[in-house]
């Protein structure tokens, strides 16, 4: 019974089975509708069985029970499989749904197919499982700005998150290289900002370009569909509109948003290379009003309490040279450009709080002090998260040293796109969202963690799959299961359990990186300075990012 992520308690598995067949019914109680629908459509497709409603002995019983809520929380579940019947009880609708994911894993890899294969017998081992997640925020961030992922791919990723009991989809919708969400009052954001004429191939230092237009965006109806599809899977979509840096696509669409007193913003286009653009938003009232309009539409589309405003890597060169920015610094009595960035973020912190939402941003936003409800995505290691938690802010840990999945999985220089540092499957498996420096009261501010997938060198969904899997499976266990301290984790056991999990990923059609070690042609001596699996050790000459 090789479950991933590993459940908290399993008891009494013998060699007896419940057999799922054409007569098996789904007996669904109140509050179970989403899971009922999901099981009928998913297992129905894989098995060809109707899973018709009804309460007979040969049934899967679904219910939500306050006693389980009390014991295991809203996201916990208890799954009891007997010879005659299956009883799945959730602490809440979400817990029930995570229990259904366990049920599907127990049925075997073919339960992940979309049509039945001939001659299959569907058996569930007699057992009792009690399970609940360690963290409430178990996320994946997907960058759809650097390379657009058409809607179908996003829906597929939501299915993949659900299969791993992950419940937050952080949707990085805007960046220098593209604006991906329709904003009705500012149509040029997508008319102009969603396409670029060409794209740098590989590192920013690479001399090569792909001379092919790249782009695309989600209409507001696409977004509504994505948010609803996620909600049916108990996944919250957290939108990110990145300000005041990473904004060149927006400035290309609306030049008045840029620092037009120091550069000719009207001549800017959507950026076609990688790195951090110097073209940042102007700290003017025009910009604030424009983005308030953007966020108004964003709030209408996304019910998430948290709204991500980016806040990372805002270069200050233009503000230093801009008379308008300097006048603003003076007028507001600010010390410098760093303070100006804080003022910018605090404006939207207050604006969101006044509308009952909470701001979350990359850890740079800590630099100028935050409103009490604001939260931090700690990406430059753990330090931002530690500082934030000590100051009483909630934190989502996503240190690039362990859970940036754009970084390579092996030290071979022919690893497809050898960018960044080596972050192996084992590095991810040994990731712990709570660093030892935090005491219990501080650790309560760690809401959880997320893996981040930046797509500069992932031009299509096959490349995203390759970078994301199998490491997302290790990440899922690190945030769901109550694992021992990192050094004591049984990685060999995890790898053994992955044998079954690769078969599930195969059935789902995931283009994961094969196995955990070198690819066949990488099985040769590893050069000095390229130690595979050495956590966070730089590869000679490799930049930390593209
Ligand atoms: C980031 O990786 N710039 C948040």
UniProtKB/TrEMBL annotation:
GO CC field = membrane
Listed SUPFAM superfamilies: (Trans)glycosidases, beta-N-acetylhexosaminidase-like domain
Q: Which GO terms describe its molecular function?
A: beta-N-acetylhexosaminidase activity
Region ranges (Disordered): 519-546
List each coiled-coil range.
Answer: none
Among Pfam families, the record links this protein to:
Glyco_hydro_20, Glyco_hydro_20b
EC assignment: the record states 3.2.1.52
Q: Which InterPro entries would you find in this protein's record?
A: Beta_hexosaminidase_sua/sub, GH, Glyco_hydro_20_cat, Hex-like_dom2, HEX_bac_N
Q: Where does the Beta-hexosaminidase bacterial type N-terminal domain start and stop, copy by copy?
A: 2-131
Q: Where is the active site?
A: 313 (proton donor)
The alphabetical list of record keywords is: Glycosidase, Hydrolase
Q: Please give a single GO biological process term from the UniProt record.
A: glycosaminoglycan metabolic process
Record domain Glycoside hydrolase family 20 catalytic: where:
135-482
What domain of life does the UniProt record list for this protein's source? Bacteria
Which catalysed reactions does the entry list for this protein?
A: Hydrolysis of terminal non-reducing N-acetyl-D-hexosamine residues in N-acetyl-beta-D-hexosaminides
In the record, the note on similarity to other proteins reads: Belongs to the glycosyl hydrolase 20 family.
Q: What protein am I looking at?
A: beta-N-acetylhexosaminidase
Name its species: Streptomyces himalayensis subsp. himalayensis
């Amino acid at each position: 019974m090789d479950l991933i992520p590993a459940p908290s308690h399993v008891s009494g598995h013998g060699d007896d089975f419940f057999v799922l067949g054409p007569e098996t019914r789904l007996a669904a109680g109140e509050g179970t509708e989403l899971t009922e629908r999901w099981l009928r459509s998913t297992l129905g497709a894989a098995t060809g069985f109707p899973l018709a409603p009804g309460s007979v002995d040969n049934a899967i019983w679904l219910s939500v029970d306050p006693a389980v809520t009390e014991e295991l929380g809203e996201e916990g579940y208890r799954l009891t499989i007997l010879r005659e019947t299956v009883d799945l009880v959730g602490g809440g609708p979400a817990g029930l749904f995570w229990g259904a994911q366990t049920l599907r894993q127990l049925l075997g890899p073919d339960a992940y197919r979309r049509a039945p294969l001939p001659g299959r017998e569907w058996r569930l081992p007699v057992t009792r499982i009690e399970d609940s997640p360690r963290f409430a925020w178990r996320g994946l961030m997907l960058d759809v700005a650097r390379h657009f992922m058409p809607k179908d791919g996003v829906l597929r990723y939501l299915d993949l998150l659900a299969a791993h009991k992950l419940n937050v989809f952080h949707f990085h919708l805007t960046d220098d290289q593209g604006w991906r969400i329709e904003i009705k009052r500012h149509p040029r954001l997508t008319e102009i900002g969603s396409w670029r004429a060409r794209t740098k191939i590989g590192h920013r230092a690479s001399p090569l370009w792909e001379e092919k237009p790249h782009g695309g965006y989600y209409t507001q109806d696409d977004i509504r569909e994505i948010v609803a599809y996620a909600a049916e899977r108990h996944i919250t979509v957290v939108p990110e509109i990145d300000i005041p840096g990473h904004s060149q696509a927006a400035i290309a669409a609306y030049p008045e948003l840029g620092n037009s007193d120091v550069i000719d913003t009207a001549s800017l286009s959507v950026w076609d290379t990688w790195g951090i653009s110097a073209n940042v938003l102007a700290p003017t009232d025009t910009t604030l009003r424009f983005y308030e309009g953007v966020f108004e539409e964003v709030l209408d589309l996304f019910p998430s309490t948290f709204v991500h405003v980016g806040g990372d890597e805002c270069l200050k060169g233009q503000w230093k040279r801009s008379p308008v920015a300097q006048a603003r610094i003076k007028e507001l009595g600010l010390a410098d450009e760093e303070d100006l960035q804080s003022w910018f973020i605090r404006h939207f912190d207050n604006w969101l709080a006044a509308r009952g939402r909470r701001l979350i941003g990359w850890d740079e936003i800590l630099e100028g002090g935050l409103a009490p409800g604001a939260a931090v995505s700690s990406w430059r290691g753990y330090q931002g998260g530690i500082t934030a938690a000590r100051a009483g802010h909630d934190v989502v840990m996503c240190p690039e040293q362990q859970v940036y999945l754009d970084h390579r999985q092996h030290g071979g220089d022919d690893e497809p796109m050898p960018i960044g540092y080596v972050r192996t499957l084992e590095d991810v498996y040994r990731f712990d969202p709570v660093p030892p420096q935090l005491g219990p009261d501080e650790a309560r501010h760690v809401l959880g963690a997320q893996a981040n997938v930046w797509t500069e060198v992932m031009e299509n969904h096959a490349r995203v799959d390759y970078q994301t899997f199998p490491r997302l499976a290790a990440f899922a266990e690190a945030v769901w299961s109550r694992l021992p301290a990192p050094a004591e984790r049984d990685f060999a056991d995890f790898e053994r359990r992955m044998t079954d999990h690769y078969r599930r990923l195969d059935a789902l059609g995931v283009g994961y990186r094969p196995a955990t070690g070198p690819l066949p042609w990488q099985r040769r001596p590893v050069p000095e300075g390229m130690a595979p699996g050495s956590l966070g050790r730089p590869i000679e000459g490799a930049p930390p990012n593209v």
